[in-house]
Amino acid sequence: MDLNLQLLLLYGTISATLAKYVFVKSKTSWTDAQTNCQAKFTDMAPINNENDQTLIQELAAGSTAYIWFGLQRNMTDTTKWLWSGGGEVTWFNWESGQPDGTGSQNFGILVNFKWHDADDKLSGFSFCFSVHVVRQEKTWEEALKHCRKHYQDLATISSETELMLIQKELDKDVSTEHVWMGLHFLSGEWAWLDGQVREYEVWGSENKPECPTKTCGALVVNKEIKQWNAHDCQEKLHFICY
């Protein structure tokens, strides 16, 4: 591998993952927070795992306010919860005794960073999810440099919900058939640039290549086909940034 590319890859830090979240410090209801997130960013923020929970706490460190995030009750089966951007919730961080609400307590709020159910009338800060689709055709390395210059990094995808949110942005305009993301084969394994553990993977029909000649990951632009594939890093594609 080219030495300059190795150095570029090593530059990636957890700050790239932090960039997918936006902490909005204006108090609103959950519904108004959702409207704001969808208008200015992508949607309200999902919290998919312990890593996401840690990132949220880092961004809002020191805050004692109530903080809305993208959790809402499934009104067709009130024992289940959904994300604002789509997808069923599979990981939870409820406070002891929560959820305890009935009736209108149908939304998720952070209280000292533990999850509580709450009424929409409550007022709180909020977390949004933000992803950027860049419709310029670049090689994987060129895309990486562009993301780090203008945003933070090429995007990682840590859950089905995040994939759905990215597809939502891709649907807004025409893109290349595949788009670059922050997945690269490095030191004998596929890895996300920000170091996240690959808990969520959706490789295409070719499955995950173990000794690939094509070493860059690209997402299929089709909301009906949730998958990514290995591509030649010199292809010129559109790309997604955090």
UniProtKB/TrEMBL annotation:
<feature type="domain" description="C-type lectin">
    <location>
        <begin position="128"/>
        <end position="242"/>
    </location>
</feature>
<dbReference type="InterPro" id="IPR016186">
    <property type="entry name" value="C-type_lectin-like/link_sf"/>
</dbReference>
<dbReference type="Pfam" id="PF00059">
    <property type="entry name" value="Lectin_C"/>
</dbReference>
<feature type="domain" description="C-type lectin">
    <location>
        <begin position="21"/>
        <end position="129"/>
    </location>
</feature>
<feature type="signal peptide">
    <location>
        <begin position="1"/>
        <end position="19"/>
    </location>
</feature>
<dbReference type="InterPro" id="IPR001304">
    <property type="entry name" value="C-type_lectin-like"/>
</dbReference>
<protein>
    <recommendedName>
        <fullName>C-type lectin domain-containing protein</fullName>
    </recommendedName>
</protein>
<keyword id="KW-0732">Signal</keyword>
<dbReference type="InterPro" id="IPR016187">
    <property type="entry name" value="CTDL_fold"/>
</dbReference>
